[in-house]
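A protein record in our archive is deliberately plain, so that people and models can read it alike. The record that follows is passed on verbatim for readers who wish to inspect the format.
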Amino acid sequence: MLIRNFFVRYLGIAAIGLLALLLGLADVAEAQKLGFHLIYMEPNGPDAENYSDPAGGFGAHLVAPLPRPVHMFAFTLGLENIIMGTDSREVYDTRTYEFVQEDITQRYTRLFIGGEFGGHGYGFFRPHIGMNFAIVNYGFTVDRVHYDDYSEEFITQNFRRDNHWLFGQDFTLGLDLRVSRKIYVDMGVRYLKTYSVPVQLNQGLATVFPEYFQVYLAVGVHTDVSEFYDEPDRR
């Protein structure tokens, strides 16, 4: 709720400020960026907070600017994995006629590709806005843990596995900080939209919503820094 209210309330102001910063960037160059990011995600929608808890995950992304004179535009490619929930409970196994531990893990994985508009060069502040299209995998696994009398060890067996492939998109507003010639830190917010969301698949799972808000924090490197070394350090 807090993320969504902040995003909606200040989106217009942030967009105007971002455009002003971008128009003021005179010192830019092309440099590919490869980074890894941590994610905090919460659902958006009617009763979302009552049926689904915030989730966390991680991801990786690649940003490839276009050649001059359109170097303010870049292609983006990324992959992220969100653990939406884990649960453990005791159930009665009709095959072994005993109570066993059942572990449920729920995942939300996105492979996205798109573009962004922003600074990709020497400046310390490099704001950017972007849009991506995504292939989303929503799935869960159910494992059962039981004690084996013969080996005298606990054995984990997969009881059920289910996956649903969906289509989605996202809109991103971020700020990239060039902390050195090779290293950058990126942070921002992202609005996710997913289509044809599956109905509840299994008892005990978090409800899946078509809309989410993310906050991410990334650290990465410039994969081609030759231009940075050709020019004097402008920090």
